[in-house]
Amino acid sequence: MASTSAAPHDADAEMDRQSVATGYSQMSITPSVYSFNSSRDGVALLRNIQGRTFNAQNELYFLPADEVEYDRLEKQHLMHLVACGRLYQEAEKVQRLLAPEEGVQKRILDLGTGAGNWAVGMAMEFPHAQVVGVDLAPSTTWPPPDNCRFEFDDFTLGLSHYYGSFDVVHSRSTANGIKDFEWFVNEAARCLKPGGILLMIEGSVEMLNSNKEPQEVAWGDDTPGQSWMARTLFECYNTMKRRGSSIDAAWRLYDLMHKCPLLDEVQTKINLIPVGPWEVGKTPDEDREKRIVGILMRQVFTELVRALQPLFLTEGYDPVLVQKFIDGTDYELNNLVVHMYAKYHFAWATRNDVPIPEDEPEAEGKGAGEGANNDDGSQSGNSSGTRRSRRTTPPPEPDAILEPPPRATRWTPELIGSTTASLRGSMVSSASGWRSGSSMDMSDTRSVRDMDD
Ligand SMILES: C[S@@+](CC[C@H](N)C(=O)[O-])C[C@H]1O[C@@H](n2cnc3c(N)ncnc32)[C@H](O)[C@@H]1O
Predict the structure, then answer these.
(1) What domains appear along the chain, each with residue ranges and CATH number?
(2) Ligand 1 mean position to 112 CA, how many Å?
């Protein structure tokens, strides 16, 4: 078995064989696959912080890249699958775009693929399509299907080697690794063929209570109804914002797609997911579904609070407080003493015919970069061997990147963003394509009850 940590040499050899067999030779475009060697690259691509493994490419993205995290991502993926009923929004259009067509290779790009669950799911549903999953550190523990490959890359260095190539581009929960999310939306749109669809999902760090209002955070005085999990996410927001991440991307998804000159027909919706099996469905099927997503969501959040521990400790939080985040979250979720919803923002849009402007920089936000030329004239993301940055100018000093906003101590309308109100209006109008029983109805305040696992 190949691993993200050091592995025996025979496992390395097997991994390399699979990498070549499943990746490069299968794909007709962008021969930029990074041939992974777990002994060599495990050192170069990964690092250890506070007992967890992290990517070593992008300082901004500060969640682990290890088996525990990949398990968490898989549960989150399953939660979305159950809550949404399928892998993608706008089903009729996605299926039409990806239908087999004589002489046309259909292609799907998953930016920030993580454990690769979505990419592999799409590869299995559309076996004639080619799927590429890009990540700082994609999971390499099992080989993907033949029509899917994973590529090690930092997409904030630019994706010009992929411009105009894909029918579907997808990105889910990647905002932590992105400084300029407006740039990212534009760059993802550029990877689409005209008529192709961009699908984006970001989770909000703002938790809601069972009345679907902002959840009060715990400050340590044991006030009933307050939440340590909400406090953890609130501190996560403060910390990641200070470090420069687009942690508020969920609130801006719709507006940024709307603003992108390459995109039309922008739509959005919000899914509210109960954290823990506390919400009652209207029918036995809906009840079962809510219970399943609630249990998955609880597992995702108890792990997330632990995954954030290295970030908090690195940022100088008191270890006793960080342990309280974990213990408090475990207690309130395991005993269902606080009933909360997690909020996921979905937005999708169609690539129009507007040509890509030629004179704009490739890399995120600033500094133009160049990809290495491949034999076919296209440009590669990573070539084999050592990692190569596409930046031609040195990255700015950290202080220039991180302009810390004032530290917030509570959620304010400014923090949450003025777009929330307009999102609520538009999500109701775009809800019809979704499975009934999803959490779209924001006025729905049905009673709640505790349930055992
Ligand atoms: C929270 S995980 C989500 C994974 C997957 N999209 C999912 O929904 O299961 C975010 C992933 O985005 C990747 N990521 C974040 N910033 C990135 C960047 N600049 N370039 C490539 N991958 C990035 C991370 O390495 C991580 O695997």
Answers:
(1) 9-379+408-433 (3.40.50.150)
(2) 3
Is the minimum distance from the CB of 19 to ligand 1 under 6 angstroms? no
Report DSSP state, residue 364.
Answer: S
Q: What is the CA radius of gyration of the chain?
A: 21
State if pTM tops 0.70: yes
Q: Give the whole-angstrom CA distance, residue 301 versus residue 298.
A: 5
For residues 387 and 45, is the Cβ–Cβ distance under 8 A? yes
Which residue in 340, 358, 382 sits closest to 33, CA to CA?
A: 382
How would DSSP label each residue in 128-165?
Answer: TSEEEEEESS---SSPPPTTEEEEE--GGG--GGGTT-
Task: Please indicate whether residue 208, judged by its CB atom, sits closer than 6 Å to ligand 1.
Answer: no
Residue with tokens 């669950």: 117
Instruction: Give the model confidence (pLDDT) of 230-280 as tens digits.
Output: 999 999 999 999 999 999 999 999 999 999 999 999 999 999 999 999 999
Centre of ligand 1 to C-alpha 280, Å, is 32
Are the C-beta atoms of 4 and 136 separated by less than 8 Å? Answer: no
Query: Quick count: other Cβ atoms within 10 Å of Cβ 327?
Result: 12
Q: What is the pLDDT of residues 20-50, one digit of tens each?
A: 222 222 333 333 444 444 444 555 678 999 9
Q: 15: which residues sit within 8 A by CB, 6+ positions away?
A: 2, 7, 36, 37, 38, 140
Strands (DSSP E) contained in 10-89 are 46-49, 52-55
Query: What letter does residue 200 receive in the DSSP assignment?
Result: E
Taking a C-beta distance cutoff of 8 angstroms, is the pair 344, 233 a contact?
no
User: Which residue minimizes the CA distance to atom 20 of ligand 1?
Assistant: 154
The C-alpha angle 27, 152, 2, rounded to 5 degrees, equals: 90
At CA 181, angle to CA 176 and CA 185, rounded to 5? Answer: 125
Asked if pLDDT for residue 420 goes beyond 50, the answer is no
